[in-house]
Amino acid sequence: MQDSKLSNLPTLLGELKQARHRQILLLCGSRKWGIAQYKAIIRDNNALALSNDAQFEQAIWPQHLHQILGQEFQFVCYDGYSGIVPNKLTAAAGTVQAGGLLILLLPVLDTLKQWCDPALEKWLSEGETPSSSPFLVRLAKLITQHQVWLISEQANNDLPEHYIAPPTSLNLAPQAHSLASIIKWLSHKTAAPVLLSADRGRGKSTVLGLIAAHYKKQNIVICAQQRRAVQNSFKHLAIELGIPEPSMQQNSLHNLTYIPPDTLLAAQPDIDILLIDEAAAIPVPMLKQLLTCSPKVVFASTLVGYEGNGRGYTLRFQNHLQKHYPNYLSLHLEEPIRYANNDPLENQMRLLFALDSEYDAPSKILPTSIQYQSVARADLLNDETLLRQVFALLVLAHYQTSVNDLRQLLDSPSNRLFIATQADHLVGVCLVNIEGNLDEALATQIALGTRRPAGHMMAQQLAQLQGDTAFITHKGARIVRIAVAPTAQQQGVGQALIGFTMQQLRDQVSYFGSSFGAQAKLLRFWQKLGFEAVKLGYKQDKSSGEFAVLVVHQDTPLNIPAIRTQFKSQLFFDLPDLYLDLPWKLVYELCRTLPSCKFKQTTLRQLTYLANKPSTQQQIAPLLYDAIMTQPNLLSALINISQMRLILLLLQRHQPKELASELKIESKKQLQLVFQQLLSEVYAEITSTKRPI
């Protein structure tokens, strides 16, 4: 190793520390050389290395981001030779303290276009061979265009002589103002929830510790997915009270106790105030449950970043609060605390991973002036403004978009992108993934469940429903995302964009489909476009609490009717158990378009008999169930309250007393009358001249 490569670094680090800034340092060269340089830089200082290479002493390659969040290091090294995973790299950047470096080990920048990044396979499907990585090409271009410190094995170093930044003083006023606002808010006996949001490094965890210090005589629980995430809150509580800081193994200090969310929900202890840190990393259904654990709850979380379901928090959980706690307190910390304003590392991460992309919505939409077009990956690579607008709209519209999706957008060869524009404004995005076109031998193995190759999610699920390999040997188009600008919604833009997309791909694929979190309104949207539900997932999404529904367009030569008939039997079988808590309106949307059969003559005779005389609930219930099972579209003919009652009582088998107020049933006599009325409505529809029986 040439010592001259590092000769100026100590001076720069001293100046960086004085400015309270952080910086990226690129080590471009061989892996062995880079490791040696890294060791020479850190010496015995506080450091974290992310690598899957054994040469890195005490390095980790975390599977989950919460394994490193909530910690601080002077030096953090990310071994690019282990693979550039955006979520992981941006999380690593979040642990660098003021005056520190994010050391990124990479090959020489000019070679990134041809470099075989081991992480690239994460964005490839079975049968795809990468030729290059547009994501890495963009990364190299942006790095060379902006001030990034660089030391190269093959050339002289590219370090500035000095690091000079305008002097800044630590501004704690915004933090103090937020703290005072929360304390005043919590002093009310019936305080609504508090939402404290911030970008990383703004001191929100500190605020939580200071809240505990202010209410030092009250029982306070702090909740997060990982104990290490709340250490900073414990630290500031200790400083404020003048007592020793607890170790990572201690879960209590004075009046503050750490309890993981699942343990808290199971134990349900008495709590005066509940503090929740990194709330965006907790599934939304669990956040809703945590609201019931204490009369006073503070949710704190990072909004710009890489937490797995941060958008679920901002889009879905805040909507829940607006509906149920409309007067909740929302505060946002702008000023950084852990480092000074205009921090180079923060700015670099935002630039490289489009973290600060803000969607530029047109003020007025004119549907007749909207244009539709396809966009190639090369177009995104060559038009940074378009790329950032596409990504910003995807983030805005979908709760699970992360920075990993930026790489997916650029590097997946099976992606197809279609957009809607008005003048220079992007108003809609449709992202499609081409699946299938695999050989028969592999298709047979997939159908038998002995192989599960990468990608082809929809094709594999469809094949495994009935062992039909045609879904894998044929090409299919899965619509991955459809995002429409808020100002353009409810104006037919999304429908028109999907129609344009299907028109462009119709000659290339045999079928179209999509998969999304099942909601009544969303399912109705797809049904209007000719898509039919063929499968409902068996597990709820951890973030949204929704079951995924798979839909396929009815215009296909493949055997969708057989799959739909099977789905009908499966759905009716699982409604009283697995899908017991599905909203009844969603059940209605799932059922009303299912295939119908002809009634048996014995069923018709029994319906006629019971409909024309006083009958018991026990006689009516099984006959009504059989009628709806035979012709699910009967539901559409019922009045709204009858639809609800039939679904909740017969299909999902809820007990009447559990939903008495919702069902508007207060006695056994009323229940009997309800069943008689349901029978009358169903029988009237069956015997109408409009319906074939």
From TrEMBL:
<dbReference type="InterPro" id="IPR007807">
    <property type="entry name" value="TcmA/NAT10_helicase"/>
</dbReference>
<dbReference type="InterPro" id="IPR016181">
    <property type="entry name" value="Acyl_CoA_acyltransferase"/>
</dbReference>
<dbReference type="InterPro" id="IPR013562">
    <property type="entry name" value="TmcA/NAT10_N"/>
</dbReference>
<feature type="domain" description="N-acetyltransferase">
    <location>
        <begin position="370"/>
        <end position="556"/>
    </location>
</feature>
<comment type="similarity">
    <text>Belongs to the TmcA family.</text>
</comment>
<keyword id="KW-0808">Transferase</keyword>
<feature type="binding site">
    <location>
        <begin position="482"/>
        <end position="484"/>
    </location>
    <ligand>
        <name>acetyl-CoA</name>
    </ligand>
</feature>
<keyword id="KW-0547">Nucleotide-binding</keyword>
<keyword id="KW-0012">Acyltransferase</keyword>
<dbReference type="GO" id="GO:0051391">
    <property type="term" value="P:tRNA acetylation"/>
</dbReference>
<dbReference type="InterPro" id="IPR032672">
    <property type="entry name" value="TmcA/NAT10/Kre33"/>
</dbReference>
<dbReference type="Pfam" id="PF13718">
    <property type="entry name" value="GNAT_acetyltr_2"/>
</dbReference>
<keyword id="KW-0694">RNA-binding</keyword>
<feature type="binding site">
    <location>
        <position position="338"/>
    </location>
    <ligand>
        <name>ATP</name>
    </ligand>
</feature>
<dbReference type="Pfam" id="PF05127">
    <property type="entry name" value="NAT10_TcmA_helicase"/>
</dbReference>
<dbReference type="GO" id="GO:0005524">
    <property type="term" value="F:ATP binding"/>
</dbReference>
<dbReference type="InterPro" id="IPR027417">
    <property type="entry name" value="P-loop_NTPase"/>
</dbReference>
<comment type="function">
    <text>Catalyzes the formation of N(4)-acetylcytidine (ac(4)C) at the wobble position of tRNA(Met), by using acetyl-CoA as an acetyl donor and ATP (or GTP).</text>
</comment>
<dbReference type="GO" id="GO:1904812">
    <property type="term" value="P:rRNA acetylation involved in maturation of SSU-rRNA"/>
</dbReference>
<dbReference type="GO" id="GO:0005737">
    <property type="term" value="C:cytoplasm"/>
</dbReference>
<dbReference type="GO" id="GO:0000049">
    <property type="term" value="F:tRNA binding"/>
</dbReference>
<dbReference type="InterPro" id="IPR000182">
    <property type="entry name" value="GNAT_dom"/>
</dbReference>
<keyword id="KW-0067">ATP-binding</keyword>
<protein>
    <recommendedName>
        <fullName>tRNA(Met) cytidine acetyltransferase TmcA</fullName>
        <ecNumber>2.3.1.193</ecNumber>
    </recommendedName>
</protein>
<keyword id="KW-0819">tRNA processing</keyword>
<dbReference type="GO" id="GO:0002101">
    <property type="term" value="P:tRNA wobble cytosine modification"/>
</dbReference>
<dbReference type="InterPro" id="IPR024914">
    <property type="entry name" value="tRNA_acetyltr_TmcA"/>
</dbReference>
<dbReference type="GO" id="GO:1990883">
    <property type="term" value="F:18S rRNA cytidine N-acetyltransferase activity"/>
</dbReference>
<feature type="binding site">
    <location>
        <position position="175"/>
    </location>
    <ligand>
        <name>ATP</name>
    </ligand>
</feature>
<keyword id="KW-0820">tRNA-binding</keyword>
<dbReference type="GO" id="GO:0051392">
    <property type="term" value="F:tRNA cytidine N4-acetyltransferase activity"/>
</dbReference>
<keyword id="KW-0963">Cytoplasm</keyword>
<dbReference type="Pfam" id="PF08351">
    <property type="entry name" value="TmcA_N"/>
</dbReference>
